[in-house]
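Entry 14. Ran structure prediction on the chain below.
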Amino acid sequence: MSSFSEDYQTIVLDVGACSTKVGYSDIDTDDPEPQAVVPTLVGVPINPDIPVMGCKSYFVGDEARKIRGSLKLTRPIRNGIIHDWDAFEEILQCAFMNELRANPAESSILMADKMFSPRKQRERICEMMFEQFDVQGYFVALQSLLPMFDNEVNRETALIVDIGHDITEITPVHEGFVLVHQARRTGISGRSVDEKLAQLLTETTISSRGDNLHRRLLSDTLNDLELVREVKEGCCHVALDCQEKRLEYEVDTVVETFQLPDGSEILLDEECFRAPEVLFDPSIIGSTAVGLSQLIYDTIMSCPIETRRSLYQNIVLVGGTSTMNGLPERIEQDLSALAPESIHIDLGIADNADTVTWTGGSCLASSVQFGSSLLSRDHYDEYGSGIIHSKFYFDDKPYSKSLFS
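Output, C-alpha coordinates:
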Protein backbone atom coordinates (compact mmCIF):
# COMPACT_ATOMS: atom_id res chain seq x y z
CA MET A 1 0.00 0.00 0.00
CA SER A 2 1.33 3.45 -0.86
CA SER A 3 1.99 5.71 2.09
CA PHE A 4 0.09 8.91 1.22
CA SER A 5 -1.78 8.09 4.38
CA GLU A 6 -2.09 5.00 6.48
CA ASP A 7 -5.79 4.96 5.60
CA TYR A 8 -5.62 5.42 1.82
CA GLN A 9 -4.75 2.97 -0.92
CA THR A 10 -3.62 4.05 -4.37
CA ILE A 11 -5.70 3.15 -7.40
CA VAL A 12 -3.67 2.93 -10.60
CA LEU A 13 -5.63 3.98 -13.69
CA ASP A 14 -4.55 3.60 -17.31
CA VAL A 15 -7.31 4.83 -19.60
CA GLY A 16 -6.59 3.93 -23.21
CA ALA A 17 -8.65 4.50 -26.33
CA CYS A 18 -9.50 0.78 -26.50
CA SER A 19 -9.34 -0.46 -22.91
CA THR A 20 -9.06 0.86 -19.36
CA LYS A 21 -6.90 -0.92 -16.80
CA VAL A 22 -7.64 -0.32 -13.15
CA GLY A 23 -6.50 -1.79 -9.85
CA TYR A 24 -4.85 -1.16 -6.52
CA SER A 25 -1.09 -0.85 -6.30
CA ASP A 26 0.34 -3.71 -4.29
CA ILE A 27 3.83 -4.07 -2.77
CA ASP A 28 3.11 -7.65 -1.70
CA THR A 29 3.65 -9.16 -5.15
CA ASP A 30 6.49 -9.04 -7.67
CA ASP A 31 4.05 -9.52 -10.55
CA PRO A 32 1.12 -7.12 -10.12
CA GLU A 33 -1.78 -7.21 -12.54
CA PRO A 34 -4.77 -4.88 -12.92
CA GLN A 35 -7.85 -6.10 -11.10
CA ALA A 36 -10.03 -5.19 -14.08
CA VAL A 37 -9.69 -4.40 -17.79
CA VAL A 38 -12.71 -2.48 -19.05
CA PRO A 39 -13.37 -1.74 -22.74
CA THR A 40 -13.26 2.05 -23.16
CA LEU A 41 -16.62 1.86 -24.85
CA VAL A 42 -19.96 3.52 -24.20
CA GLY A 43 -23.24 2.74 -25.92
CA VAL A 44 -26.60 4.46 -26.03
CA PRO A 45 -29.78 2.81 -27.33
CA ILE A 46 -30.25 3.21 -31.09
CA ASN A 47 -33.96 3.73 -30.53
CA PRO A 48 -34.60 5.37 -27.13
CA ASP A 49 -38.29 4.40 -27.36
CA ILE A 50 -37.44 0.68 -27.25
CA PRO A 51 -36.39 -0.56 -23.78
CA VAL A 52 -32.93 -2.13 -23.58
CA MET A 53 -31.85 -4.08 -20.47
CA GLY A 54 -33.31 -2.03 -17.67
CA CYS A 55 -33.99 1.14 -19.67
CA LYS A 56 -30.56 2.61 -18.90
CA SER A 57 -29.34 5.62 -20.86
CA TYR A 58 -25.69 4.45 -20.88
CA PHE A 59 -24.11 1.02 -21.27
CA VAL A 60 -20.42 0.85 -20.49
CA GLY A 61 -17.55 -1.53 -21.18
CA ASP A 62 -18.30 -5.24 -21.53
CA GLU A 63 -22.01 -4.61 -21.03
CA ALA A 64 -22.06 -2.33 -24.07
CA ARG A 65 -20.05 -4.80 -26.14
CA LYS A 66 -22.41 -7.70 -25.38
CA ILE A 67 -25.51 -5.88 -26.67
CA ARG A 68 -23.81 -3.73 -29.29
CA GLY A 69 -26.41 -4.67 -31.90
CA SER A 70 -28.96 -2.56 -30.00
CA LEU A 71 -26.63 0.35 -29.28
CA LYS A 72 -24.83 3.20 -30.94
CA LEU A 73 -21.27 2.70 -29.74
CA THR A 74 -18.77 5.47 -29.12
CA ARG A 75 -15.26 5.68 -27.76
CA PRO A 76 -14.79 8.85 -25.69
CA ILE A 77 -11.08 9.08 -26.58
CA ARG A 78 -9.83 9.54 -30.14
CA ASN A 79 -6.22 10.27 -31.04
CA GLY A 80 -5.45 10.89 -27.39
CA ILE A 81 -8.13 13.59 -27.06
CA ILE A 82 -11.23 13.19 -24.88
CA HIS A 83 -14.18 14.17 -27.07
CA ASP A 84 -17.03 13.07 -24.83
CA TRP A 85 -16.49 14.00 -21.19
CA ASP A 86 -19.80 12.53 -20.01
CA ALA A 87 -18.87 9.16 -21.55
CA PHE A 88 -15.36 9.44 -20.09
CA GLU A 89 -16.83 9.94 -16.62
CA GLU A 90 -19.08 6.91 -17.15
CA ILE A 91 -15.99 4.83 -17.94
CA LEU A 92 -14.34 5.97 -14.70
CA GLN A 93 -17.51 5.30 -12.71
CA CYS A 94 -17.65 1.78 -14.16
CA ALA A 95 -13.96 1.16 -13.43
CA PHE A 96 -14.10 2.40 -9.84
CA MET A 97 -17.51 1.30 -8.64
CA ASN A 98 -18.55 -1.66 -10.80
CA GLU A 99 -15.25 -3.38 -11.52
CA LEU A 100 -13.01 -2.45 -8.59
CA ARG A 101 -15.89 -1.93 -6.14
CA ALA A 102 -13.92 0.91 -4.65
CA ASN A 103 -14.79 4.30 -3.23
CA PRO A 104 -12.36 6.74 -4.89
CA ALA A 105 -13.02 9.21 -2.06
CA GLU A 106 -11.08 6.84 0.17
CA SER A 107 -8.15 6.51 -2.24
CA SER A 108 -5.42 8.37 -4.04
CA ILE A 109 -5.11 8.02 -7.83
CA LEU A 110 -2.17 7.46 -10.13
CA MET A 111 -3.26 8.40 -13.65
CA ALA A 112 -1.21 7.35 -16.68
CA ASP A 113 -1.22 10.06 -19.35
CA LYS A 114 0.01 10.44 -22.90
CA MET A 115 3.15 12.43 -23.59
CA PHE A 116 1.35 14.87 -25.91
CA SER A 117 -1.93 15.34 -24.00
CA PRO A 118 -3.28 18.92 -24.11
CA ARG A 119 -2.72 21.00 -20.98
CA LYS A 120 -6.42 21.80 -20.60
CA GLN A 121 -7.30 18.12 -20.79
CA ARG A 122 -4.82 17.26 -18.01
CA GLU A 123 -6.31 20.01 -15.87
CA ARG A 124 -9.88 18.91 -16.47
CA ILE A 125 -9.12 15.29 -15.52
CA CYS A 126 -7.47 16.57 -12.33
CA GLU A 127 -10.56 18.66 -11.56
CA MET A 128 -12.81 15.66 -12.20
CA MET A 129 -10.81 13.53 -9.78
CA PHE A 130 -11.05 16.04 -6.94
CA GLU A 131 -14.48 17.51 -7.65
CA GLN A 132 -16.51 14.54 -8.96
CA PHE A 133 -14.69 11.66 -7.26
CA ASP A 134 -13.39 13.49 -4.19
CA VAL A 135 -10.05 11.67 -4.22
CA GLN A 136 -7.53 12.23 -1.43
CA GLY A 137 -4.46 12.57 -3.63
CA TYR A 138 -3.57 12.62 -7.31
CA PHE A 139 -0.52 11.82 -9.42
CA VAL A 140 0.04 12.04 -13.18
CA ALA A 141 2.73 9.92 -14.85
CA LEU A 142 3.78 9.61 -18.47
CA GLN A 143 2.46 6.40 -20.03
CA SER A 144 5.68 6.07 -21.99
CA LEU A 145 7.84 6.20 -18.86
CA LEU A 146 5.81 3.85 -16.66
CA PRO A 147 6.98 0.62 -18.39
CA MET A 148 10.47 1.47 -17.11
CA PHE A 149 9.23 0.81 -13.56
CA ASP A 150 7.83 -2.63 -14.41
CA ASN A 151 9.77 -5.41 -12.70
CA GLU A 152 10.31 -7.18 -16.03
CA VAL A 153 11.52 -4.15 -18.01
CA ASN A 154 13.29 -2.34 -15.11
CA ARG A 155 15.97 -0.45 -16.98
CA GLU A 156 17.33 3.09 -17.09
CA THR A 157 17.81 3.35 -20.86
CA ALA A 158 15.27 2.25 -23.46
CA LEU A 159 13.37 3.28 -26.53
CA ILE A 160 9.75 2.68 -25.56
CA VAL A 161 7.58 2.01 -28.63
CA ASP A 162 3.95 2.14 -27.49
CA ILE A 163 1.67 0.91 -30.30
CA GLY A 164 -1.83 1.60 -29.06
CA HIS A 165 -5.30 1.51 -30.54
CA ASP A 166 -5.29 4.98 -32.09
CA ILE A 167 -1.85 6.43 -31.30
CA THR A 168 1.71 5.19 -31.53
CA GLU A 169 4.24 6.99 -29.32
CA ILE A 170 7.98 6.47 -29.44
CA THR A 171 9.84 7.75 -26.39
CA PRO A 172 13.61 7.64 -25.88
CA VAL A 173 14.75 7.36 -22.26
CA HIS A 174 18.47 7.66 -21.53
CA GLU A 175 19.90 6.96 -18.07
CA GLY A 176 16.47 7.53 -16.55
CA PHE A 177 15.75 10.82 -18.34
CA VAL A 178 13.03 11.14 -20.96
CA LEU A 179 14.33 12.89 -24.08
CA VAL A 180 11.10 14.82 -24.42
CA HIS A 181 11.97 16.80 -27.52
CA GLN A 182 13.02 13.67 -29.43
CA ALA A 183 9.80 11.78 -28.70
CA ARG A 184 7.57 11.04 -31.71
CA ARG A 185 3.87 10.39 -32.19
CA THR A 186 1.80 9.11 -35.11
CA GLY A 187 -1.81 8.20 -35.76
CA ILE A 188 -0.76 5.03 -37.60
CA SER A 189 -1.80 2.45 -35.03
CA GLY A 190 -4.08 -0.47 -34.28
CA ARG A 191 -7.14 1.38 -35.51
CA SER A 192 -5.43 1.91 -38.87
CA VAL A 193 -5.17 -1.87 -39.20
CA ASP A 194 -8.85 -2.23 -38.23
CA GLU A 195 -9.96 0.24 -40.89
CA LYS A 196 -7.82 -1.35 -43.59
CA LEU A 197 -9.10 -4.80 -42.64
CA ALA A 198 -12.69 -3.55 -42.81
CA GLN A 199 -12.01 -2.23 -46.30
CA LEU A 200 -10.50 -5.53 -47.44
CA LEU A 201 -13.34 -7.55 -45.95
CA THR A 202 -15.96 -5.61 -47.88
CA GLU A 203 -14.47 -6.76 -51.17
CA THR A 204 -16.84 -9.11 -52.91
CA THR A 205 -14.73 -12.19 -53.50
CA ILE A 206 -12.26 -14.47 -51.77
CA SER A 207 -9.38 -14.92 -54.16
CA SER A 208 -8.65 -18.48 -53.02
CA ARG A 209 -12.14 -19.88 -53.70
CA GLY A 210 -13.37 -21.03 -57.08
CA ASP A 211 -17.00 -20.21 -56.26
CA ASN A 212 -16.22 -16.51 -55.72
CA LEU A 213 -18.09 -16.50 -52.43
CA HIS A 214 -19.98 -13.24 -52.06
CA ARG A 215 -19.67 -11.61 -48.68
CA ARG A 216 -23.27 -10.63 -48.26
CA LEU A 217 -23.21 -11.71 -44.63
CA LEU A 218 -20.79 -8.87 -43.89
CA SER A 219 -23.00 -6.10 -45.24
CA ASP A 220 -24.16 -5.02 -41.79
CA THR A 221 -21.65 -6.38 -39.31
CA LEU A 222 -18.63 -4.75 -40.88
CA ASN A 223 -19.96 -1.35 -39.93
CA ASP A 224 -19.03 -2.48 -36.43
CA LEU A 225 -15.30 -1.90 -36.06
CA GLU A 226 -15.48 -3.72 -32.74
CA LEU A 227 -16.10 -6.92 -34.64
CA VAL A 228 -13.35 -6.11 -37.13
CA ARG A 229 -10.95 -5.62 -34.22
CA GLU A 230 -11.83 -9.10 -32.97
CA VAL A 231 -11.19 -10.53 -36.45
CA LYS A 232 -7.82 -8.77 -36.48
CA GLU A 233 -6.83 -10.14 -33.09
CA GLY A 234 -7.84 -13.65 -34.11
CA CYS A 235 -6.40 -13.85 -37.61
CA CYS A 236 -3.91 -11.10 -38.53
CA HIS A 237 -0.13 -11.28 -38.55
CA VAL A 238 2.74 -9.22 -39.95
CA ALA A 239 4.70 -10.46 -42.96
CA LEU A 240 8.45 -9.93 -43.24
CA ASP A 241 7.90 -9.05 -46.91
CA CYS A 242 4.31 -8.37 -47.93
CA GLN A 243 4.88 -8.61 -51.68
CA GLU A 244 6.76 -11.87 -51.38
CA LYS A 245 4.02 -13.23 -49.15
CA ARG A 246 1.37 -12.37 -51.75
CA LEU A 247 3.35 -14.26 -54.39
CA GLU A 248 3.51 -17.26 -52.08
CA TYR A 249 -0.27 -17.13 -51.60
CA GLU A 250 -0.78 -17.30 -55.37
CA VAL A 251 0.87 -20.73 -55.25
CA ASP A 252 -0.27 -22.04 -51.88
CA THR A 253 -3.02 -20.08 -50.16
CA VAL A 254 -3.64 -20.41 -46.44
CA VAL A 255 -7.24 -19.70 -45.47
CA GLU A 256 -8.21 -18.56 -41.97
CA THR A 257 -11.73 -19.06 -40.63
CA PHE A 258 -13.42 -16.65 -38.22
CA GLN A 259 -16.80 -17.30 -36.66
CA LEU A 260 -19.17 -14.34 -36.37
CA PRO A 261 -21.42 -13.86 -33.31
CA ASP A 262 -24.42 -15.29 -35.20
CA GLY A 263 -22.55 -18.54 -35.86
CA SER A 264 -21.82 -17.88 -39.54
CA GLU A 265 -18.22 -17.87 -40.74
CA ILE A 266 -16.02 -15.73 -42.93
CA LEU A 267 -12.86 -16.87 -44.65
CA LEU A 268 -9.73 -14.75 -44.88
CA ASP A 269 -6.58 -15.23 -46.87
CA GLU A 270 -4.34 -12.29 -47.91
CA GLU A 271 -6.27 -9.92 -45.67
CA CYS A 272 -4.51 -11.50 -42.68
CA PHE A 273 -1.18 -9.87 -43.58
CA ARG A 274 -2.23 -7.11 -45.99
CA ALA A 275 -4.12 -5.16 -43.31
CA PRO A 276 -1.20 -4.95 -40.83
CA GLU A 277 1.07 -3.75 -43.65
CA VAL A 278 -0.45 -0.28 -43.12
CA LEU A 279 1.78 0.02 -40.02
CA PHE A 280 4.85 -0.06 -42.25
CA ASP A 281 3.48 1.54 -45.42
CA PRO A 282 0.80 4.11 -44.51
CA SER A 283 0.58 5.23 -48.14
CA ILE A 284 -1.73 2.27 -48.83
CA ILE A 285 -4.45 4.14 -46.92
CA GLY A 286 -3.51 7.48 -48.46
CA SER A 287 -1.51 8.74 -45.49
CA THR A 288 1.69 10.74 -45.84
CA ALA A 289 2.98 9.53 -42.47
CA VAL A 290 6.15 7.46 -42.34
CA GLY A 291 5.96 3.80 -41.43
CA LEU A 292 6.65 2.40 -37.99
CA SER A 293 10.18 1.10 -38.63
CA GLN A 294 11.23 4.34 -40.30
CA LEU A 295 9.77 6.39 -37.45
CA ILE A 296 11.72 4.36 -34.88
CA TYR A 297 14.89 4.94 -36.89
CA ASP A 298 14.17 8.67 -37.26
CA THR A 299 13.55 8.96 -33.51
CA ILE A 300 16.87 7.36 -32.63
CA MET A 301 18.75 9.45 -35.18
CA SER A 302 17.27 12.64 -33.71
CA CYS A 303 18.78 11.80 -30.31
CA PRO A 304 22.29 12.88 -29.21
CA ILE A 305 24.86 10.77 -30.99
CA GLU A 306 26.26 9.32 -27.77
CA THR A 307 22.86 7.84 -26.85
CA ARG A 308 22.00 6.13 -30.14
CA ARG A 309 23.86 2.85 -29.74
CA SER A 310 22.31 2.18 -26.32
CA LEU A 311 18.84 3.01 -27.67
CA TYR A 312 19.28 0.58 -30.58
CA GLN A 313 20.17 -2.06 -28.01
CA ASN A 314 17.20 -1.38 -25.73
CA ILE A 315 14.06 -1.17 -27.87
CA VAL A 316 10.96 -2.22 -25.92
CA LEU A 317 7.59 -2.76 -27.60
CA VAL A 318 4.48 -2.17 -25.51
CA GLY A 319 0.78 -1.67 -26.20
CA GLY A 320 -1.90 -4.05 -27.42
CA THR A 321 -1.02 -3.83 -31.12
CA SER A 322 2.61 -4.77 -30.39
CA THR A 323 1.47 -8.33 -29.57
CA MET A 324 0.56 -9.05 -33.19
CA ASN A 325 2.44 -12.08 -34.50
CA GLY A 326 5.47 -11.25 -36.63
CA LEU A 327 5.61 -7.56 -35.70
CA PRO A 328 8.83 -7.59 -33.61
CA GLU A 329 10.63 -9.63 -36.29
CA ARG A 330 9.55 -7.20 -39.04
CA ILE A 331 10.72 -4.14 -37.11
CA GLU A 332 14.07 -5.76 -36.30
CA GLN A 333 14.56 -6.72 -39.96
CA ASP A 334 13.73 -3.20 -41.16
CA LEU A 335 15.96 -1.51 -38.58
CA SER A 336 18.88 -3.79 -39.43
CA ALA A 337 18.62 -2.52 -43.01
CA LEU A 338 18.42 1.14 -41.92
CA ALA A 339 20.98 1.28 -39.10
CA PRO A 340 24.78 1.30 -39.55
CA GLU A 341 26.24 -2.18 -40.03
CA SER A 342 28.22 -1.96 -36.78
CA ILE A 343 25.06 -1.47 -34.73
CA HIS A 344 23.55 -4.46 -32.92
CA ILE A 345 19.76 -4.20 -32.65
CA ASP A 346 18.20 -5.64 -29.51
CA LEU A 347 14.43 -5.47 -29.63
CA GLY A 348 12.03 -7.12 -27.25
CA ILE A 349 8.40 -7.19 -26.28
CA ALA A 350 7.28 -7.44 -22.68
CA ASP A 351 5.33 -10.58 -21.79
CA ASN A 352 2.63 -8.29 -20.41
CA ALA A 353 2.86 -5.77 -23.26
CA ASP A 354 -0.83 -4.88 -23.07
CA THR A 355 -0.75 -4.11 -19.33
CA VAL A 356 2.90 -3.12 -18.73
CA THR A 357 2.00 0.57 -18.39
CA TRP A 358 -0.41 -0.30 -15.58
CA THR A 359 2.03 -2.68 -13.86
CA GLY A 360 4.78 -0.06 -14.07
CA GLY A 361 2.40 2.42 -12.47
CA SER A 362 1.62 -0.10 -9.73
CA CYS A 363 5.33 -0.55 -8.99
CA LEU A 364 5.83 3.22 -8.91
CA ALA A 365 2.84 3.77 -6.61
CA SER A 366 4.25 1.14 -4.25
CA SER A 367 7.60 2.91 -3.86
CA VAL A 368 8.51 4.58 -0.60
CA GLN A 369 8.84 8.04 -2.15
CA PHE A 370 5.51 7.99 -3.96
CA GLY A 371 3.32 9.25 -1.13
CA SER A 372 5.24 12.51 -0.80
CA SER A 373 4.96 13.12 -4.56
CA LEU A 374 1.14 13.18 -4.66
CA LEU A 375 -0.85 16.32 -5.24
CA SER A 376 -2.86 16.58 -2.03
CA ARG A 377 -6.37 17.97 -1.74
CA ASP A 378 -5.03 20.91 0.29
CA HIS A 379 -2.60 21.85 -2.48
CA TYR A 380 -5.31 21.39 -5.10
CA ASP A 381 -7.67 23.65 -3.16
CA GLU A 382 -4.92 26.27 -2.81
CA TYR A 383 -3.39 26.26 -6.30
CA GLY A 384 -6.01 24.67 -8.56
CA SER A 385 -5.53 22.09 -11.29
CA GLY A 386 -2.91 24.14 -13.13
CA ILE A 387 -0.33 23.12 -10.53
CA ILE A 388 0.00 19.68 -12.14
CA HIS A 389 2.15 21.01 -15.00
CA SER A 390 4.98 22.10 -12.73
CA LYS A 391 4.48 19.47 -10.02
CA PHE A 392 4.66 16.56 -12.45
CA TYR A 393 7.38 18.03 -14.69
CA PHE A 394 5.36 18.77 -17.80
CA ASP A 395 6.55 22.40 -18.00
CA ASP A 396 9.63 21.75 -20.15
CA LYS A 397 11.64 20.38 -17.22
CA PRO A 398 13.71 17.19 -17.22
CA TYR A 399 11.36 14.26 -16.65
CA SER A 400 13.32 11.52 -14.95
CA LYS A 401 12.61 8.07 -13.64
CA SER A 402 14.89 8.91 -10.69
CA LEU A 403 12.45 11.58 -9.52
CA PHE A 404 10.07 8.90 -8.32
CA SER A 405 12.20 5.89 -7.44
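The chain has 15 helices and 20 strands. Will compare against last week's run tomorrow.
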